[in-house]
Give the backbone structure.
Amino acid sequence: MISEEKNKAHEKHVKLSRPDVGTFGRNEIAIIGTTCANIRSMASAVSRHLDGYKIAYVDADHANTGNVENEASRVAKGVSLEYTDKITFQRFDFNGNISAFQKRSFLSEQDLIIVNGNHFTASAQIVVIDPKGPAQKTR
């Protein structure tokens, strides 16, 4: 018995498995198969029903519908980071790339991350059968 214990390599700590973290965070789910407007509506409905939880929504902007001269003009003109207090919410605009680690870090406090699957992938998916929507993820 003693000789068997000596042959085993000593381990200080138990080997822990790493959590499965998706593109944006642990609890991410993409909605695909319908239009972006329907996905936004579904995300809003889910967030209303899960009142009390922190829910993030990830989407891509199809077109800059705001006034380009006023919206993001400082970033477009060379400022690297802009913070705007919009009274009812805050916004950061920055010029540069964001790493996968930075995305996950920023979204780490969220209980659920709903992703527009037409633009981004997630570790889990909800597929909506909609004849008007795309059947596959597009970018």
In short: The radius of gyration is 21 Å.
